Amino acid sequence: MSSAITCEDVRVSYGDLQVLRGVSFDIPAGQGVVLLGANGCGKSTLMRSLNGLEKLQSGRIRIHGDSLADASRVDLRRIRRCMGYVFQQFNLVPQLSAFQNVLLGAMGRHRLGLLSCLGLTASTEERARAMACLERVGMADRAQHRPSQLSGGQQQRVAIARMLMQAPKVVIADEPIASLDPKAGREVLDLLWRIVREEGLSMLCTLHQLDLAREYADRIIGMKAGRVEIDAAIADIDPLHLNTLYVGMTRVDAQPQEDAA
């Protein structure tokens, strides 16, 4: 089985502060993995490293065999186009309709960029695909609604449709239910995991809820103090072992952006 994401002894530092201290793992194509760890363990730094937003001190990251460190700007854009994102804060454009936000998923394939995503130059095929993506997440009847007219769960569904529009091979979901109530959060996870499995995608999803991680994940990677502490298939996970990720935590990342990790 080919590898979707490979991390080889990844290290990231901010000055003298070591944030990632030799992180290594391999996610095969088609596997859904949950990344766990307490605030400040380095999860967000790792997630930013996966698309080249963090400079590695040493080590290597490969996405479907392509090394980020060796990629030219053109190659890096190509690698990023195969990676779809679902964020905690939805990141929808408030002035655009749900339909137009979904069209944004195709922006990376167009020289005209945003104009195509506003529907000004989008092809009939792309417009039909955007509607199909909204239908897939149960939001076709809200296509012309702006984000302010939608609930949090509905906004996250639109964000998932936008990710689908991109046609990614790898999904990075960073706390996708942190802004939702428990009922809406479970509905979003049901939808997200169903789509990932039906499409044969690979996913790395950060969560804090241990019960949901055990319920949805094929495998769990647990981080503590910048290192991988647990890496096991869900059937082999000891729940008591998971709890140790949150005991005696030493914060390794003092950067402000890690606070929400």
TrEMBL record:
Name of protein: Phosphonate transport system ATP-binding protein
| PANTHER family linked | AMINO ACID IMPORT ATP-BINDING PROTEIN, GLUTAMATE_ASPARTATE IMPORT ATP-BINDING PROTEIN GLTL
Q: Give the keywords, sorted.
A: ATP-binding, Cell membrane, Membrane, Nucleotide-binding, Translocase, Transport
Q: Which family does it belong to?
A: Belongs to the ABC transporter superfamily.
Q: What CDD domains does the record tag this protein with?
A: ABC_PhnC_transporter (cd03256)
Annotated compartments? Cell membrane
Q: Indicate how the chain sits in the lipid bilayer.
A: Peripheral membrane protein
The ABC transporter domain covers 5-250
How is this protein annotated for GO cellular component? plasma membrane
Q: Which domain of life is it from?
A: Bacteria
Q: Which organism is it from?
A: Roseicyclus mahoneyensis
Q: Does the keyword RNA-binding apply?
A: no
Does this UniProt record's set of keywords contain Membrane?
Answer: yes
GO MF, any single term: ATP binding
